[in-house]
Amino acid sequence: MIRAVISVVVIAVSLWVLQGARQGVQITAFETGGTPVVRYAVADAEGPAVVIAHGFAGSQQMMQGYALPLARAGYRVYAFDFLGHGRHGVPMSGDVSSVDGTTRLLVEQTRSVMDFVDAGDLPLALIGHSMATDILVRAAQGRNDVGPMVLISAFSREIDAGFPQQLLLVSGAWEAGLRQAALDSVRLVAADALEGETVQAGDVQRRMVAAPFSEHVSVLQSRVARAEAVAWLDKAYGRASDVRILPTGWAILGLLVGLVVLFPVLARRLRDAGVAAHALNGRQIAVVVGLPAVLAPMIAVPLDPGVLPVLVADYLGVHLAIYGAVQLGLLWYWGALRGRMDWGAFVLLLAWCVLFGVALDRYAANFWPTVERIWIIALLLPGGVLFMVADAMATHGAGFWRRFGLRAGFFASLGGAVALDFEGLFFLLLIAPVLVLFFVIFGPMGRHVAQRAGPLAPGLALGVVLGWALGVSFPLFQA
């Protein structure tokens, strides 16, 4: 009961903060030239226009930490999804390693959005994160309608001593390389410039700040970084904004963690099927970890499916299917498959995961599939289901270290795949953190269901969620 009360309180407070950040802001979604754009502005806003762009594998929702306070300060903010990202159904294309390939297409898309925005008599402000920093610098070149820029976790070889002129660089304190690169960009203007110091040479103004206790993602919710962005634009436009930067990062974390912690209270209401765990011995554990870890990359890499327009997702789907099938075969041979299907438990877990996804999509990052991604998710489901049912069976009733060891074998197999085809499967290294988060977030919920209903229902439900997560999280790409 205490856990339930605390969870509900945390969820309620988190929602109060997150909705408070939106108070008075009208959020309008539309398209221009096929690009999904979301406008953030208070009623009758007449302040300067700001275009905000997200990083690789991101979405416009990830930039709300900057969009919402600027909108409450009177700015008219336009955030959009790059090709193949978020709600954009058209894949990226071209050579990702060439400036004349994918980069050129993203620059053209950005300029199209900039042209669409009515900036009035004032120059347009630009804010971007990670990949978008280079895109925005290139998009601004040769234009006379661009004003102050805020580049977060920036990298771009196009920044020089004279361009961009009004530039704030923000890096997470834990981004050592990007932090130094940002400071180097400021020192192009003043060789002895320090972090937190504004320097000027003629019409060029530069400033670099490090957001404390932040890395590449959490910098998007840093209150210090967001306050600096508002102040930089205010200075450029001669404005004085009185806007409170709310702790939305902590609120997002509180909401999502609260949902996870509350779930066991619901799971305990399921009928107890009394499914006992099958204790694997040391030799069996070694085989159930090692054999699929070796076979999956050896079989999947030569297959090179290349069917889905999502970076390495089709390979991952095949890898998951082989890995899960081998584990299930071993568990069946040892008589370790346990329990019958409990559809009530399946529906409960799947519904709670959908609720989690809705919360994530509204406040943090895109997690809702567009029509163009439905068939991708459908093709990823078999691999996701085979893998997660095998995982649920193998880890049923296991302690932490056994679960850790079983799952570490899977990540080792992904490393083996990258070693076999580094150029083609490099992006698996970017997917690995997403899979770690998947186990951290959804794993405990599945385990609580398994304790009551057995491993089959949670394995099947989380297999569906895994296919869903992989289908919506990574950019569409068509060579």
Give structural notes:
The chain has 479 residues and is an alpha/beta fold. The chain folds into two domains: 2-250, 3-Layer(aba) Sandwich (Rossmann fold); 277-478, no CATH class. It is built from 15 helices and eleven strands. It has helices at 2-22, 64-72, 99-116, 131-140, 176-187, 223-237, 248-267, 282-303, 313-333, 343-363, 371-395, 400-420, 422-425, 428-453, 456-473; strands at residues 25-32, 35-42, 49-53, 76-80, 92-93, 124-129, 146-152, 166-172, 198-201, 204-211, 477-478. The strands form two sheets. It has a nine-stranded mixed beta sheet, with helices on both faces. α8 packs parallel to α12 and α14 (428-453) packs antiparallel against α15 (456-473). The longest helix is centred in the C-terminal third of the chain and has 26 residues, at 428-453. It is globular, with a radius of gyration of 24 Å. The protein starts with a helix and ends with a strand. The mean pLDDT is 94.
Key traits:
2 domains, alpha/beta, Rossmann fold, 9-stranded mixed beta sheet, 479 residues, two-stranded parallel ribbon, 13% strand, globular, 15 helices
In short:
With 479 residues, the protein is an alpha/beta fold.
**Principal-axes shape call:** globular
Biggest sheet character: 9 strands, mixed
Number of strands: 11
The CATH class of the largest domain: Alpha Beta
Structural Rg: 24 Å
CATH architecture assignment of the largest domain? 3-Layer(aba) Sandwich
Q: What is the CATH fold-level name of the largest domain? A: Rossmann fold
Could you say how many structural domains there are in total? 2
Give me the CATH superfamily of the largest domain: Alpha/Beta hydrolase fold, catalytic domain
Mean pLDDT over the residues? 94
How are the strands ordered across the major sheet? 1-2-4-3-6-7-8-10-9
Which structural class should the secondary elements be placed in? alpha/beta
Percent of residues in β-strands: 5-15%
Distance between the termini: 54 Å
- Number of H/I helices: 15
Q: Low-confidence stretches at least 5 residues in length (pLDDT < 50)?
A: none
